Amino acid sequence: MLQELITKEVSELLDYDFTNYSFKSKKLGSFIEEFTELIETTSEKEKYKLNAIKLCKALESIQDIKKEHFKKYKILVELAHKAKSQEDYNIISAEIFELGDKVIKENFQKRVKQDKQVNWFCLENRLTAEDLKKIRKGEFFYEDKLNKELPFDDDILISYLPEPKNKLRKEKINSFLKNITEILSKESDFLLYDEKIIITSYAMRAKKLDKILSELTKDFCAEKCPVAPLGCCDYETYYQIGMPTEMLKLQEKEAKKNGWLYFPVHCKYHTNKGCKLKLYKPPICLGYICSPLNYFLNDNFSGKDSDSFLDNSRELTDSSKLFYSGNAIPFSTYFKQVFELMDNIIKAGENITKNKTIPKNTISE
Ligand code: SF4
Ligand code: SF4
Fold it and tell me: How far apart are CA 164 and CA 179, in angstroms?
């Protein structure tokens, strides 16, 4: 039972399905060894495919790529999922670079012709002012941008794990699996003294919460946000609030795994497809609910669960503002409170999504 739970949680955390694999080991210790081996060999075998998928995700951030070049984009995604060797990867990446380059330049010309703000063009296409200068001079190449900003040689599958380092890879995977085993088999109070376990435990909760928020708030934020297109991601350093230094490093790895390209305006993880973080999204963002969204949730989900969802969300956002690395609140005390609030939101959110139909077209103005 515990083995099944570990396999399921790890699959969810790593976005890779290990649940169909039949493990030989029955004892917990040898199961963890076998699973460690499996993650290591899988990440080696799958790296060409996963790297190609990461390139496709970066391509998605180019405005209109799916609208006007959908057929080509879809073929590239299908090919990326089939990549098995360096040669496959080279062919697919060359096509991706070519398409990205072409569309960015086409979009720029359209903007100039229509006399629209070029700043918005930058925002929509994840380009920096430096990129823009290069486009004007004809020196811009999408391939250079991706090579500079995405670490293609990084081990993608394990880039979610705390502090991956190649020479300690096996050991790191093993300790990550042991953290998960402890989280799933012991009381949370016991765990609060180990920073690595806190980090893994945060990621597991954040992923569950992200799923609930996608169901409850995503449509409203996408269709009715009063401050679109930036939404509430308008402050440059939001991503840091309430996050210890260790988690800040992991945020960047996670975002890069999701095809994130750096753009130095507003919160750096905001893109035209939303936030690039799921596992290490800061508590201030996980809990934030603006007044229009609050009205929408109140109108549609009144009751005990809805009150708990809103109250705990508010408290999560407020409490995270008091924490920053190096301040007087100990790491463990802060996270004990954060976990309690996250658990309350998850519980209330699961009840709401289980019992109610989420309205799609009844959003109040
Ligand atoms: S929470 Fe409010 S401000 Fe933020 S994206 Fe959603 S609707 Fe917009
Ligand atoms: S971390 Fe994500 S949700 Fe939070 S402000 Fe930045 S982009 Fe927005």
Answer: 14
What would the two tokens of residue 48 be?
């060409």
Residue nearest to atom 4 of ligand 2 (CA): 285
| pTM, 2 dp | 0.89
Q: How far is the CA of 256 from the centre of ligand 2 (A)?
A: 14
Distances (CA, A) of 22 to 14, 25, 188: 18, 9, 29
Ligand located closest to 233 CA: 2
Nearest CA to ligand 2 atom 5: 233
CB-ligand 1 contact for 286 (6 Å cutoff): no
Tens-place pLDDT, residues 22-70: 999 989 999 999 999 999 899 888 999 999 999 999 998 898 888 889 9
Task: Tell me which residue has its CA closest to atom 2 in ligand 2.
Answer: 275
Residue 225 in contact with ligand 1 by CB distance below 6 A: yes
Q: Which residue has the tokens 């946000």?
A: 225
Give the C-alpha separation, 194 to 179, whole Å.
9
Local structure of 27: helix, strand or coil: coil
Q: What is the dihedral of CA 291, 297, 303, 305, to 10 degrees?
A: -100
Contacts of residue 53, defined as CB under 8 A and 6 or more positions apart, other chains included, come to: 77, 80, 81
Phi and psi torsions of 179, nearest 5°: -60, -50
Best CA proximity match to 289, nearest among 221, 208, 363: 221
221 C-alpha to ligand 1 centroid (Å): 5
The residues that bridge with 270 in the sheet, in sequence order, are: 275
